[in-house]
Amino acid sequence: MIVIMEPEASQEHVNKVINKAQEYGFRTIINQGDLQTVVALIGDETKISGPDLFEELNGVRRVERIQVPFKLASKAYKHEDSVFEIYPGVKIGGAEDLLVMAGPCSVETEEGIMQTAKAAKASGAKVLRGGAYKPRTAPRTFEGLGELGLRLLKQAKDETGLPIVTEIMDIRDLDKVCENADILQVGARNMQNFSMLNEIGKAQKPVLLKRGMSATIDEWLLAAERIMHHGNSKVILCERGIRSFDAKYTRNILDVSAVPIIKKLSHLPIIVDPSHGTGKRHLVRSMCFAGVASGADGLMIEMHPDPENALSDGPQSLTFEQFDELMKEIRELESVMRKLNKTKNLVTA
Questions:
Q1: Cβ contacts of 152 within 8 Å, gap of 6 or more
Q2: Residue 248 sits in the same domain as residue 301
Q3: Which domain CATH number covers 59?
Q4: Mind listing the pLDDT tens digit for each residue in 238-272?
Q5: Could you tell me if 12 and 43 lie in one domain?
């Protein structure tokens, strides 16, 4: 249930709603928008007679019951798209500029990550990605440098000013990852690691939540809901492809249709990962274009100084030159899409 306040409602009016909710055992979450305040009530709604209990309070415009299970992540809770800062001067969600995250699948050497960070920044990327801990199916493959990888990422950030997104694989590493990273990545295999999501929800770091390889839209949004339920509202959704039966041609099926679906259901920003979504270097460019055209807030693209000899995911990684050329094309397409959307808004206004 959400209580929507009048635009001119005072803090005293809001406090009375909160106090009344707490009397009945509800937990409250406040969404302070530019035009109005919304109070979300989390708890057993059978304890109250109905919405009239809150509608009669001064400053309340109306009370709505949210039917979907992902209440905090839903568009009903927050009508306008969420926009939040992930690093000073770097925002995501509903912004004018598409946010591009780029870097290697995994941190391998100091020289490699430094070269990649500088190339990513020179081409226009705003966030450096790189795995310090790598989830691998086979036990004798490269699984990352661990703490050394985190330190190298921090070194690259200090050198270039690019904020860091890296995956957390074990909740015991949460403090170490938070010390070095600006965005905590929850990988596809951990999307439903509920104990991890609970703890990440308590951390005050933006979270990049990748869709599980066989997860439905509802399951994905409920994973976001769990993080938000524990106090962290800065969740970025990432479509990274779902399990495919045709692995000969694509590693996964990149579900680009998920982007407009999420935009309709949720206020959370969403980005597309065409590298993991296809697993093929020659498909990354076209799927980047598809992601931009679908309305994604950003892209996550893998690049490497020497993809042919990368220790993980080389076949889907771009060279520096390929990434630079792609970024120029992405900016051109972004400009075209912005003009089309502006024209659409004028027509429907």
A1: 107, 110, 113, 132, 145
A2: yes
A3: 3.30.70.1140
A4: 999 998 887 778 889 999 999 999 999 999 999 99
A5: yes
Structural domain span for residue 42: 2-64
Asked whether residue 331 is domain-assigned, the answer is yes
Count of domains observed in the chain: 2
Half-sphere CA count of 291, side-chain side, radius 13 A: 32
More confident residue, 151 or 68: 151
Q: How many CA atoms lie within 13 A of 50 on its CB side?
A: 2
* Residue 122 sits in the same domain as residue 48: no
Claim: this prediction has a pTM higher than 0.85:
yes
Q: Do 189 and 312 share a domain, yes or no?
A: yes
- Radius of gyration in angstroms for the set of CA atoms belonging to the chain, rounded to a whole number: 21
Same domain? 52 vs 184 = no
Reduce the DSSP state of residue 267 to 3 states and report it.
Answer: coil
82-120 burial, b at 16+ Cβ within 10 Å, e below that, comes to: bebebbeebbbbeeeebbbbbbbbbbbeeebbbbbbbbb
11 within domain boundaries:
yes
Quickly count: other Cβ atoms within 10 Å of residue 230's Cβ: 14
Higher pLDDT, 231 or 346: 231
Judge whether 130 and 101 are in contact, CB under 8 Å: no
153 with 28, same domain?
no
What is the full DSSP assignment across 38-98?
Answer: EEEEES-GGGSS-THHHHTSTTEEEEE---SS-TTTBTTT--SPP-EEEETTEEESS-SSP
Residue with tokens 């869709």: 211
In tens, the pLDDT along 56-89 reads 999 999 998 888 889 999 998 888 899 999 999 9
Tell me if residue 127 falls in helix, strand or coil: strand
Examine residue 78 and state whether it is found in any structural domain, yes or no. no
Beta sheet of 2-5, edge-to-edge order:
27-32, 37-42, 2-5, 60-64
The label of the residue with tokens 């951990």 reads 190
Q: Are residues 159 and 27 in the same domain?
A: no
Q: Are 238 and 300 in contact (CB under 8 A)?
A: yes
